[in-house]
Amino acid sequence: MDQVSTNSVNRRHPDWIKVRAPGSPEFFATKALLRELNLHTVCEEARCPNIGECFSHRTATFMLMGDVCTRNCPYCAVAHGKPKPLDPTEPLRVALAAKRLGLVHVVVTSVDRDDLEDGGASHFAATAQVIKKLMPSTRVEVLTPDFKGLRSSIETVIASPIDVFNHNVETVPSLYKKARPGGRYERSIEVLRYAKERARALGREVLTKTGLMLGLGEEIEEVLRVLDDLRAVECDILTLGQYLRPSPDHLPVVRYVPPAEFAELREKALAMGFRYVESGPLVRSSYHAWQHVG
Asked: pLDDT digit string (tens) for 97-135?
């Protein structure tokens, strides 16, 4: 595997990581709608590099339960602190935004809300219900936190009218202490396993999905072992993307993974049995999400 020194990494991105500055009329129209309805998106809060492309296509990943997270992962740009109480009108506002944007596939995520008894599971469920009520044929994908492993929270979300249950493992087990101190690798794998089990118990076909960011210092063998673990719990969809440092206060990039290596990992993952794999330097969890279930 080609290595890029940390010093070089911190000075500039390689040529293959380039995005066009947002500025289309559609971009500003999407942003205005989100402001009008007082909604947060992970696109903005996490400083996603694809925000220009996605907003210009009149799509966004809605972030529920505010813009303040109860955890403080050192790779993430979302603010950490004491969040505000839940807004019971938020599910409807998300659904109205999705309808006005004409979305056929809605992705809803959230900050971690460890302060809530169910971790926000009922809020996810309420949002899915309102979206389906307004747009019955629209697919709903939820990207959830780990709910501290609470099975009752997973059950609440799975019982709601969702089509895709997404929970990101984010990185390899050896890097959890450094990159995801509030999480546990085994717990995240179990969340995905139990979500699939509960969906089947209810007689429903719910696709499970997860994502990893590369470039934090993982070895390729570790990544492949994670993919084995994911297939062992029958995870259907996988996204692989490059970690990009949000600011000097966050974890540094250890390595930029070349596009060819992302392509190779995609082929290996498909050979393992994943139904769909999105893999590339700028890929994020909800990037081209509507294609993942086609």
From this structure: 889 888 888 889 999 999 999 999 999 999 999 999 999
| Every domain of the chain and the residues it spans | 40-291
What predicted TM-score, i.e. pTM, was given to this entire model?
Answer: 0.89
Element (H, E) at 32: helix 25-36
The beta strands (E) that lie in 70-129 are given as 79-80, 105-110
CB atoms within 10 A of CB 136: 8
Cross-strand partners of 63: 40, 109
CATH dotted code for 40-291: 3.20.20.70
Scored b (16 or more CB within 10 A) or e, 253-268 reads: bbbbbbbebbeebbeb
* Range list of β-strands (E), 144-253: 164-166, 207-214, 237-242
pLDDT digits (tens, 9 = 90+) for 239-250: 999 999 988 999
CA distance 212 to 200: 25
Q: Which residues contact 224 (CB under 8 A, 6 or more apart)?
A: 268
Please give the torsion angle defined by the CA atoms of residues 194, 200, 206 and 208, in that order, rounded to the nearest 10 degrees.
30
Using CA atoms, how far residue 60 sits from 37, 39, 66, 145, 232, in Å, is 13, 11, 16, 19, 31
Q: Which residues of 80-96 are buried (b: 16+ CB within 10 A; e: fewer)?
A: eeebeebeeebbbbbbb
Query: At residue 260, does pLDDT exceed 90?
Result: yes
Other C-beta atoms within 10 Å of 72: how many? 13
Helices (H) and strands (E) in the chain, counts: 11, 10
Judge whether 118 and 147 are in contact, CB under 8 Å: yes
What are residue 186's phi and psi, to 5 degrees? -60, -35
